[in-house]
Amino acid sequence: MATATQTQQGFVPVEALEKPWRFDLFRRWPWLKRLVRMRSFQYFLLLPNLFMFYLFLIAGLFGTPVGSSNIIIMYVWILWWFVLIAVMMPFGSRIWCTMCPLPFFGDWLQRGAVIKVRSGKSPGTNNKFFGLHKRWPKKLSNIWLQNFGFLLLATFSALLVTRPIVSVIVFGIMIVVATGLALIYRLRTFCNYVCPISGFLSLYAMTATLELRSTDKDECLKCTTKSCIRGSEDGWACPWNVYMGKLDRNNYCGLCFECVKSCPNDNISLFVRPFATSDIVIRGYDEVWKASIMLVLAFSYSVVLLGPYGQLKDWANISEVGNWGGFGLYAAGQALLALVVFPGLYYLSIRLAKWYAKIDNVSTKELFLRYAYMLVPMGLLAWIAFSVPLIMVNGSYIISVTSDPLGWGMDLFGTAHFPWTPFWPEWVPFIQVPILLAGFYYGVRGIHKVGRQLFSDPVQLHRSLVPPTALLLGVTLVFMKLFIG
Amino acid sequence: MSNSSGENVRSTLLRGIQIEARNAKVYDTFAQLFQGYDDSVTAIFCEMADEERQHGTDLEQRYRARFGPVPVPAEEPKEVIEAPDLEDAEALIFDSMTLEQALEVGLKAELMAREFYQREAGRISDPDLQKLYQELGEFEEDHVRRLEEKLAEKGHAPKSTAR
Q1: Probe site for chain B from A143, A223, A230, A248 (most B CB atoms < 10 A)
Q2: What is the model's pLDDT at position A473?
Q3: Are A467 and A349 in contact (CB under 8 A)?
Q4: Rounded CA gap, A378 and A368, in Å?
Q5: Kind of pairing, strands A210-214 and A23-24?
Q6: Which of A90, A334, B66, B107 is least enclosed, having the fewest CB within 10 Å?
Q7: Alpha-helical regions (H) of A163-284
């Protein structure tokens, strides 16, 4: 049986991908394009963020050690997290990366400039960079480090989200590593391969309703300079090493907009598109495991933080209880579930799909990679559902710490004594359930689209969807059970 | 040969020269882009750039023999007849560009050109222009064969961007 697009080992040409509608924001609002093309645009967003981040670090260092009274904990781990996962990711793709303060010092030293562009000939680019500009090891050119990094951070999250000093140490280490790597390796090595936050942003950016793309692929074909990736006198070489001429998914585009400035053909634009419909190609095992880790962590956090399991809470809460044996069990169980059990169940569903649909023209690897897309919208929406009670139940702390950011008894805006007030907690399950169902819907819809690219026979297509869909339904039901009891 | 037929042949040859020059620049750009990664990839892009320049020189000789000095083009050709391009937007992120994939970039462009010239040769009724298109098609056929031989030497596997 012939495949629908004659794919070979997971390769699908950009031209063959079925694309939904998209709306060109730069064409609709030329002022937005003028704004983005300004050299200082990114820094209008970044510098205030950097200043806030600096204040948070100061608060973490010198403020109260009580997490719920310190601005670094409340703003970063409740407000920022909620805005990042529930607003920025689905609607703004990697817009956080546009303004992220962590790589700022590395960029500054590497470029020798904050705003202006330096023309030159550092290897592979048309810009002059400082530092050793080395090639990152090929074996590490993937997101495995980010996968393990995030799993590690998440395992110690009880420390991270309750002890301000731990957050300061972690962010401090990240800034130092980002800066060090920028001086040794090319471009945004830290963001591409090391940053644990960047790893899941890359995965969930696939669902976003925003994309930066070339407007006319033929213009890119005719382009001799490829300035989008190599840079020019108007813009830096793509810090993320992405070639816009063939870009077909958001994962590794950090929305720095340098390509908008450097493209000599004015051929890059910002588009609005439907949610979780356009980028549906998972390309590597590292990305599949990222999806698994994220989904399992959403489950694990929901069990520990929202569930009625006191023993598990104690084990996870190493900072308060100090039961290292229990913590070891919790950490090992979580890692086992994320790295072995869930990927194993998913693999089993793929083997079943191959058997049930009698698939012999698509390899197990290809099906395993391609159908893993279903875990992307499901994972993101599970995280959003998990984050809803965080903001609705604990959001009132944000109001009080805004007036007393260091927990020193200040009352800057008269809200320091705002009592802990859950906002409409009885509504939480009614918000979570539709979000979970949306995750299931978009997951199934996604693999149906993938399946149509792989199989021309509708019977084979639908049979191939049954086992992975059953797994996804199981995941949805487990989350529902956790959220509504 | 009528005036209009001669003009068609002249402009077609000129366009061919421009396209070869453009492609040489693109291959040079790719060679520079992959500097510091796989040396064999950089080397093959340099080689392909040199070949394109050689193709351009061959076409210029033909042009000069029939029409005199080759004029400096006023603008870049608008058509996408033969346009090498990277298949994978993330090749540099994942350091995944192989020598075989680099050769495929060239092969795909040459196949595109061969198909175009053969199609035009079948469509055009002007015998002079038809002959030129046939010659250009054979020209590209030769490039296709050479790239396929190189790929065969490397034990060419089907292209894949799956990691």
Answers
A1: A223
A2: 98
A3: yes
A4: 16
A5: unpaired
A6: B66
A7: 164-184, 189, 196-204, 217-222, 227-230, 258-262
Query: Which CATH fold topology does B3-153 show?
Result: Ferritin (1.20.1260)
B19 phi and psi angles, rounded to 5 deg? -65, -40
Q: What is the C-alpha separation between B110 and B88, in angstroms, rounded?
A: 18
Q: What angle do CA A309, A310, A315 make, to 5 degrees?
A: 105
Per-residue pLDDT reduced to its tens digit, A297-307 = 999 999 988 87
- For chain B, how many residues are written? 163
Burial class (CB in 10 A: 0-12, 13-18, 19+), A419: exposed
Q: Which residue type does A270 have?
A: L
pLDDT at A16 over 80: no
Structural domain boundaries, residue A345: 286-484
Q: What angle do CA A132, A134, A135 make, to 5 degrees?
A: 170
| Residue A456, beta-bridge partner list | none
Answer whether residue A339 shows pLDDT above 90: yes
The whole-number pLDDT of residue B80 equals 77
Minimal Cα distance from A185: which residue of B?
Answer: B36
Contact A255, A212 (CB under 8 A): yes
Domain count, chain A: 2
Per-residue pLDDT, averaged over A463-473, amounts to 98
Q: Which amino acid is at A434?
A: P
Q: Domain residues of chain B, as ranges? A: 3-153
Report residue B156 CA to chain centroid gap: 20
Same domain assignment for residues A47 and A184:
yes
Average pLDDT over residues A275-283: 94
Closest CA to A254 of A246, A262, A244: A244
Partners of A123 on chain B (C-beta within 8 Å) are: 35-36
Distance CA A284, CA B161 (A): 9
Asked whether the predicted pLDDT for residue B15 surpasses 50, the reply is yes
- pLDDT tens readout for residues A25-43: 999 999 999 999 999 999 9
Domain match, A95 and A158 both? yes
In a domain, A193, yes or no: yes
Maximum CA extent, chain A? 72
Least confident of A164-178, B70-84, B123-137: B70-84
Residue A53 shares a structural domain with residue A81: yes
Contacting residues of B for A366, CB less than 8 Å apart: 162
- Of A467, A460, A443, A262, which is closest to residue A348 (Cα–Cα)? A467
Q: What is the mean pLDDT of chain A?
A: 93
| Closest by Cα among B105, B10, B16 to B55 | B16
Q: Residue A109's CB: how many other CB atoms inside 10 A?
A: 16
Report the pLDDT value the prediction gives residue A311, as an integer from 0 to 100: 84
What is each CA distance from B156 to A12, A129, A173, A188, B87, in whole angstroms? 18, 37, 45, 33, 16
CB-based contact A245 B86, cutoff 8 Å: yes
